[in-house]
Amino acid sequence: MKCTKEHRLEFTDRAAELLKGMTLEEKVSLMSGKMSLRQEMADREVDPENKHYNYIPYPAGGIERLGIPPMLFCDGPRGVVCGTGKATCFPVPMLRGASFDVELEERIGHAIGREVRAFGGNFFGGVCVNLPYNPGWGRSQETYGEESFHLGQMGSALVRGVQEEDVIACVKHFAFNQMENARFKVDVTCNKRTEREVYLPHFKECIEAGAASVMSSYNLYQGVRCGHHHYLLNEVLKGEWDFDGFVVSDFYWGVKDTVEAANGGQDIEMAHTLYFGDKLVQAVRDGLVPEEKVDKSALRIIRTLLAFTAQHKAAADPSVLACGEHVSLALESARKGITLLQNEGQVLPFDRERVKKLLVLGTLGDKEPIGDHGSSWVRPPYVISPLQGLEMAAPGTEVTFHPGDDLETARKLAAAADAVVFVVGYDHNDEGEFVSEDEAEGFTGAMGGDRKGSLGLHPKDVELIKAVGPANGNAAVVLIGGNMIMMTEWKDAVGAVLMAYYPGMEGGRALGEILFGDVNPSGKLPFVLPHEEGDLPAVDWDATGQWYDYYHGYAKLEKEGKEPLLPYGFGGSYTTFEISDPAFKAEKDQVLASCKVRNTGGRAGEEVVQLYVGFGNSAVDRPVKLLRGFRRVSLAPGEEREVAIACPIGKLAYFNERTGAMEVERMEYQVYIGTSAHDRDLAAGTITI
Ligand code: BGC
Fold it and tell me: Which family is this sequence assigned to (predicted)?
């Protein structure tokens, strides 16, 4: 039996019973994190390798006397952050988003859940579904893409997988948290439609999938800190969405006021106590926080922990950590997410018979492509670099590595090689989690932050590709990064481009297999790639106030009639697919779309069939179309299959500002099925609702 909401609610009476026997201090202690930041910092200084952030699960809650188990927090999302050299490091969610594979994400959730339990934890803080308003957001790698529907599908799959292993899944950061450098100070504003249609639905989807915890964000929304946000936490999450679990604050600086936070719906101040604890007890005594508020939070915490603990019978099993099955899953994920963006002249795959001398260029070639060094840093037993992956894929090929800092030498080496692979993009210094000293009271955290300046490659890499690419007819660029990287400037200097994101501990192996054709690339872009950065919304990364427009990403380009360089949902393959016999209907409460997909090329391959719904007849301003379903299919050469995709009609709704409700318009909708968001890849029809 799973620890579903229904199952958890069965523990309400027991939790209420326990509450009756508790003092105010005990109830408040459940709401107060138990780590000491000072102690943690001291530990880290003594032994930074082993005593890094979250090296053991962080406790909160729990009262031994009453048999209430503690919550034991393990961060993510690219695996479990605990331990050193132990956990499986999966590709980052952005790559997993590019796989468009919900079933695979659920299996990753299971593996992560098992590893959380192996570390002695019971809480996974790594379901990140924030939607990047602009791809420069430094923590984009932790989320799945730019599209709310897709985020909801992927995030809820992770929730299901993790919770089926009896581990509480925490969905974060609620809400509007998609600017890193300014995260402690920025006040995000937008209109109601943007809030309800663009930034909240994916959170709701995860709650509907049964997520038992939510982490509030640091930033402000409409002038109120999200960790204190009565409207977001009490009204929307716990009220409208009927969320039964508990909210935790983002760590250390997510709560800034005892009374506001407790009354605003914050259940646990993490990871240590600054504003809850004694201060909260006093606030209750002073009549500033009704005791009933504390009771409600305590009940949520006790109920959830009792339910998950009762559910879990097995003892912790460390043998599952980075076990064969989990590592294979990391590899499968990398294989399915890496995305072929360009393949002029069929440069790829390389032919082992012809490529006897291979040159790998770029400083990232021999680095570990696993992502940033912030709170999501997983330390696996090993990481295969792109260089190692290429050496493994072609044992009979002489592989030379050069960082590319000396253009003349690089050009000579390239001219003498049979093929060249540039490995360029970003690392943990360029993008990722960031804590600045002035914002966080003397604490300086790991580098990263939002991208500085541009969404393109570093000038030195652009120069390298432009200078050296033309020296070899078999040149491919491998891009490493957590979100879209501009290509306009340099793409013509090489034949092929692969987007590798941060592919995880087995990422180098997957890259080698794809470059040499053992694996057919099948990832799809979970974001649009424009011709110009200016086609995307502008963000001031240091702002104290930021407006989010209704349109971003592909929806913005389509609305403005701007052709993208590469459309949302696009990804190349070494084989070809043909879509035929599209059919659409609206039946009962569902949109049903189907088509046939045939593999018309000479290799086995996987394709992601996508369903979009268009709103051309709407009475209000709406996107041209939006993704409303997708399905991955695997096809042998010549094989044809029928693919059916269903979407609940409720997902076509817009927020009616007049009635204050989500409503489905009665009208004719355009519907599209195909292999990317671009018209040329879609078969169109209509349905009437
Ligand atoms: C991050 C969260 C993380 C928490 C714990 C915060 O700075 O925003 O994603 O779970 O720290 O370290």
Answer: Belongs to the glycosyl hydrolase 3 family.
Q: CATH 2.60.40.10: which residues of the chain?
A: 575-688
Compute, in angstroms, the gap from residue 173 CA to the centroid of ligand 1: 9
Class of domain 5-320: alpha beta
For residue 40 and ligand 1, the question of a CB distance below 6 A is answered with no
Distance between CA atoms of residues 286 and 281, nearest Å: 9
Parts of the chain belonging to CATH 3.40.50.1700? 336-556
Please give the CATH topology (third level) of the domain spanning 336-556. Rossmann fold (3.40.50)
Which of helix, strand or coil describes residue 525?
A: coil
Q: What is the CATH number of domain 575-688?
A: 2.60.40.10
Residue nearest to atom 7 of ligand 1 (CA): 251
The whole-number pLDDT of residue 46 equals: 85
User: Which residues in the chain come in under a pLDDT of 70?
Assistant: 1, 437-446
Active site residues: 250
Q: Which atom of ligand 1 is nearest to the CA of 75?
A: 10
* pTM recorded for the entire structure: 0.98
Q: Is the CB of 172 under 6 A from ligand 1?
A: yes
pLDDT, position 446: 59
DSSP code per residue over 217-252: PSSEETTEEGGG-IIIIIIIIIIIT---SEEEPPTT
Q: Where in the chain is the domain with CATH 3.20.20.300?
A: 5-320
CB 250 near ligand 1, within 6 Å:
yes
Residues across the chain? 689
332 lines ligand 1 (CB under 6 A): no
From the CA of 193, how far away is ligand 1's center (Å)? 28
* Complete edge-to-edge strand list for the sheet that includes strand 668-674: 625-635, 605-614, 668-674, 682-688
Give the pLDDT of residue 438.
62
Q: Which atom of ligand 1 is nearest to the CA of 126?
A: 10
